User: Fold this.
Amino acid sequence: MNAGLILFLIFILCLVIGVPVSISLSVASLTAVVFGGLPASSTAIAQRIFGGLQSSSIMAIAFFVLAGNLMTKGGISRRIVDFADCLVGNVRGGMSLALVLACAFFAALSGSAPATVIAIGTMLYGDMIKKGYPGPRTAGLLVVSGGLGPIIPPSIIMVIYCTLTGASVGNMFKQGMMIGIVIMLVLMVEVLWFAHKEKWPKQSVKRTPAEVVKVFLDAIPALLTPIIILGGIYSGMLTAT
Assistant:
């Protein structure tokens, strides 16, 4: 049987019976090599797999995921959301603006789109629906804003790309930062347009200066984290890992 057909069928079979995607890819590839008549041995495949794992740059992926989980479980994500809401919450559609801004802040911590969507969505989506924000618009905005995760550095995808191609991680992060900020601003402009067009809710409670200062002070550790990470990488003091 053709190796490509074996690869496809085994991969689909593994997915159907509930095998994780990463393991499905491995099983399908190994089966295609063994039974598809390809000029490669299973021993060589194992050696290549373990050789790829020896790259220290890939360790950054696990650290970014760990950092994102620590931010979520430790309450730093909530502080980011509160700070973003404090900045832009008083305008029409303010919670949507806060969602975009919070996703941009969290993207600079996790490097992952799913982690950004889960961390910010679990805190804001339900509240926004209860306050009258349209469900489809809110869900779409959350998904698109979560896409800032792999664009605004540190980014898991950028680390993998640089590991495979030998490109500079620092240069990739610099370009990603500029592109991510532009996307964030475009999303915020679009949110304001839809908010006024469709009459999205407007927050009636205004914060006092003392409350604003308190929220800012609480958010300082969260706001310093991306500065430490990116500042260390850009200055050459730290590597991405």
